[in-house]
Design brief:
Number of helices: 2
Number of strands: 2
Helix content: 25-40%
Shape: globular
Order of helices and strands: EEHH
Radius of gyration: 11 Å
Length: 49
């Protein structure tokens, strides 16, 4: 996402739960849902082979 966007919107159930610069959202997510998404995205063991 860092290479493709300057701003990020994180949505859950059709509502925006967090918005901000790509760098800020990726390095210091504020909403619990955003933190969970980031943790899941970087947990390569969770992806089935």
């Amino acid at each position: 996402m860092r290479a493709l966007s300057h701003e990020i919107l994180v949505m859950k159930d059709g509502e925006i739960v967090e918005a901000g610069s790509t760098e800020r959202v990726m390095t210091a997510p504020e909403h619990p849902y955003t933190r969970a998404l980031m943790a899941a995205a970087f947990d390569l063991a969770a992806v089935p082979a």
